[in-house]
Amino acid sequence: MDQAVAPFPVVDHQRVVFADGLALDCGAVVKPLAVAYRTYGRLNAARSNAVLVCHALTGDQYVAERHPVTGRPGWWENVVGPGRPIDTERFFVVCANVLGGCMGSTGPREEMTDSEGRGLGRPWGTDFPSVTIRDMVRAQKRLVDHLGIARLLCVVGGSMGGMQVLEWAAEYPEAVFAAAPIATAAHHSAQNIAFHEVGRAAIHADPDWNGGRYWETGRVPARGLSVARMVAHITYLSEQALTRKFGRRLRGASALTFLEDVFEVESYLRHQGSTFVRRFDANSYLTITRAMDYFDLAAEHGGDLANAFRGTRTRFFVASFSSDWLFPTSESRALVRALNAAAANVSFVEIQTDKGHDAFLLDEPDFHRALGGFLRGAAERVGV
Question: Chain-wide mean pLDDT for the chain?
């Protein structure tokens, strides 16, 4: 891999810019605030059919269309679209690139500004302030308000997207009729933080890291970012899925050598790493993984998770996957218990699958039927 190659081309993303900026939980203010987003379907006259989709760690706003950088299909095209569980013939779907991301929203790759919002002629890089999941949601709320939507029919997302869903329901309960947190948890576990730290350490150890100011050399820490992606990707799968897809098969050889022959699973991970560095920014990866690690919804509400939802009228759909060891079903059950303690309206399903954490992104008919049924029920309740 040529580390001198830019990770991805410049793309003119659709976005809205708020000149007054956003105050963050860390005490800093980012000014102005840019939120890049995409919409699908039409907003009805009553403005009551809006569904906000929140993306996961390495996702972005291109949820249901070809990606402008990779050319690959949208990351949730099997769920969002005409006749899909999130039906764009019925719903107005919004998806925004998170604060701290690298697909047009304010983040480490964007131009740094001073306290007055004046550009300083270089990227934020490691000077970008720490952000939280709650900060990301506040930025999304600015977008939703800008679009003239007083109440979302549903907020839905998996993994880190599910964390955002929970924060939406806790922070803006009157603005969320229904919430669907999928394959997620109310806090990041010590094990998940540990995996993230391995990825961050790989980036920091890359010879091209340059203290996070890698743009000055025209290079990117591609090797470190690639390793970070490889480590993370292992956690998205299950042992059964890896065995089924790769086993111990060698690529292009019948016997193992110490030269060029590799296991098929090694080749797969290397491909995942090499393609990732061409669409993602290393400083954004550090920023967003830290936001996930900091997330602890109970701690935000006096140490009692149920307090986050007391008095809520939001309807919840919680889904987990049996082979997901990154966000296991036990985490979803803990969330459901807290929602029950808060007397919330909640339904829960565990989908039986061997596909691991990534199952929410893949072809899982039982999950699609359950999510689609929940959304249709919510729509009927509000007359959409």
Answer: 93
